[in-house]
Amino acid sequence: MGADHTRSAPPTPPRVRRILVVTVVPLFLATLVAAIVLWPRDAPRPEATDDTPRYHGTVTRVVSEPCPPNPVVPEGTPTTAAGPCGTVTVRVQTGPDAGQEVQTPIPTGPGAPRIDVGDDIILVSLIDPEDPSVSTYNIAEHQRGKPLVWLAVLFAAAIVAFGRLRGLAALGGLAASFAILLTFVLPGISAGRPPLAVAIVGASLIMFVVLYLTHGISAQTSVAVLGTLASLVLTGLLGLAATGATHLTGFGSEDATTLSMFRADVDLHGLLLAGIIIGSLGVLDDVTVTQAAAVNELRHANPNLSRRELYRSATRVGRAHIASVVNTIVLAYAGASLPLLLLLTADSRALGQILTSEFLTTEIVRSVVATLGLIAAVPLTTALAAVVTTAGRGEAGAHTGEPTPLVPRPATDRAEALRALSTPPTRNTSPATPSGWPDPDRSTDTTW
Fold first, then answer.
1. Which class for 111: exposed (0-12), middle (13-18), buried (19 or more C-beta within 10 A)?
2. Does 355 fall in a domain?
3. Do the domain assignments include residue 231?
4. Where is 429: in which H helix or E strand?
5. Span 220-250, pLDDT tens digits
6. Domain region containing 351
7. CA dist 180 to 113, 186, 206, Å?
8. 280, 281, 282, 286: CA torsion to nearest 10
9. What is the CATH number of the domain that holds 317?
10. DSSP conformation letters of 240-301
11. Stated pTM of the model
C-alpha cells in the first residue's frame, strides 16, 4: 500500500496546548453531562403488532397471460384489468413450506416489483379470514440484503484503499455517528426530550468523536472542533429565529403529519430545528477541518507570514470552498424532496403562493440557515487557527533567550531571471531504457 505521506504538523508550544486543553476539555465534559441529563431512560418501545409472515424465495418460472375482462366497469374505461397478468412459480427457502414450489400471481399496481426468473424475492403469507386453514402466497418485494452487503464492502474497501489508516478511522467515526443517532438522538426525541437540545448535544458528541478519531488529537483538530461547535450553536440560534419569523409549525411534510398521528407528544417544530442542525453538521466538519488545515499548510510553507496574512490567505480558500458548498446544500435538499417538488410544478396556484407554502418555506429556511452557519464557520475557524499557529512563533528560541529570527525571502536578480527565461531547455540526459524512454524507476526527488 505504501507509506502514509501525510505531513506532520509542527509541534505546538506548551502554552498554546494548555490553553486549548483548558478550553476543549470543559466543553467535552459539559457535553457529556448534558447527554447524561437528556439520555432517554423512558423511551417508548415499539408496540408489538401481528406482522404478516414473510419468507424468502427464488423465482423459477414466470408465465404471462392475457388479463380477463372486468365484470363491471364505468363507461369509457378499458374492459380489461390493468396488467400484467399471469402466475409466478417460486421455490420457498424459509418457513413451513421450505423446499417446495408455490404459485403466486404476478404483482400488479403502482410500485409493484418487476419479476424475472432467478430473482430472490420476499413472500407474504395471507390467511383466508373465512377459512384459517387456507393460506396463499403473494410477492411483496425483492430481497436486497445481498446487494447492500456488497455495496457496503465496496464502500469500505474504497475508503481504506485510498485513505489507509485515516480511511479506517473515518469508518470508525461513521459507525460512531450512527450509534449516537440511534441510541441517543432518535430515542431522546421519541421520549419527549427537547429536540433542539438533543440535536445540539448529539451533534456535539458526534463532532468530538469523529474529528478526534479521524484526524487525531492535535491543536489543528482542536481548532476545527471549536469552530464547529461555535457554528453549530449559531446555526441553532439562526434556525430558531428563522422558523419563528416564518411561523413554521413543522407540519410541512407528509412524514411529519403521519408522525403526529402516531406520536402526538413529539414537538414537530423542535424536530425541524433538530433536522437543520444534524443535516448541517457533516458539511460544517468539512469546512472547519479544511480551514484549520489551510492555515497550518500556509504557515508551514511560509513561516514569515503574519497573523493577518495567514487569515487573509486562508479566507480566500474558504470563499472558494463556500461557493461550491452552497450549491451542494441546496441540491442535497432539493434531491431529497424531488417527488414533492415535481408535484408542486403541476400546482395551478400562483408562484408566490407556492413559494410561501409551508413545505417550500421549510426547505428554503433549511438551506439558508445551514448556509449562514457555514459562512460563519469560515472566519471563526480561520481566525482561531491563525491565532494558534502564530501564538508560539517567538517561543522556539526560548531556551537560548533569543526570539526566532524571521528569514527574509531572497531577492531575485532581474537580469538573471530574464536570462533563465530566454535560455532554451536542455535535453534530458538521464539513463534511458532500451526502448529509448527514461527509466521509469528513476527517482525524481532530486529534481523536484
1. exposed
2. yes
3. yes
4. none
5. 899 999 999 999 999 989 999 999 899 888 8
6. 164-391
7. 34, 9, 7
8. 100
9. 1.20.1640
10. HHHHHHTT--S--SHHHHHHHHH-TTS-HHHHHHHHHHHHHHHHHHHHHHHHHHHHHHHHHH
11. 0.71
